[in-house]
Write a structure and sequence with these properties.
38% helix; six-stranded parallel beta sheet; alpha/beta; Rossmann fold; 6 strands; single chain
Amino acid sequence: MSKPILQVVLASTRPGRVGKPVAEWFVDHAGAQGVFDVELIDLAEVNLPFMDEPNHPRLQQYIHPHTKKWSATVERADAFVFVSPEYNHGFNAVLKNALDYLHNEWRYKPVGFVTYGGVAGGTRALQMLKPVVSSLKMVPVVEAVMIPFVNRLLDDEGRLRPDDVISDSATAMVAELAKLSAAFETLRTPAVPA
C-alpha cells in the first residue's frame, strides 16, 4: 500500500534564496518520519506566470498547459507544507499566485508551515497565510516550524543545521499532518453516483 503524498512547496524564487536549504532539510526530515512519500515542489521551477486564466478556478476550465500541469501536481497531494519567507510582514506574491491559480485541488488537505526570517522567524507570514488557505478549505495545523535568524543556522556549505526545538517542531507537525490527512481522505474522495 502506498503512503500518502506530502508536497513541500518552496515559495521563494529569489536567487541565492535561503528557502532552498530550509526546504531541503525539511524534505529529508519529513521523509525520515516514514509516514509520507515526500515531494519537493519548487515554485521557481513551476514558474507560473501571474494569473492568466480567464475562468474562475473553481470551474476547473483551464486553458493553459502550465495551469493544467499545476492542477495535476496539486491534485495528487494529500497534505502540504509551505516553506515561506516573510516579506514586509507578509508572505510572498509567488506563493499567493500559486494558491490563487487553483481552487478545488486544495480542498480538504491539511497544511503546515515552515517559515523563516529575522527576529520573528516568519510568524507574520504564517498568520497571513492561515485565512488564505482556510478560504480554500485547507486545514492549517497548529504545529508549525518558525526559524528566526535563519542565516545563523546555515553551515559553511549552505545547509541548514537546525537546533532541537526546530527539529522537534518539524516532527510534531509531520505527525499532525499524517493524522489529518488520513482523517480527511473520505472528504477528498469523489462520491460515486448511486
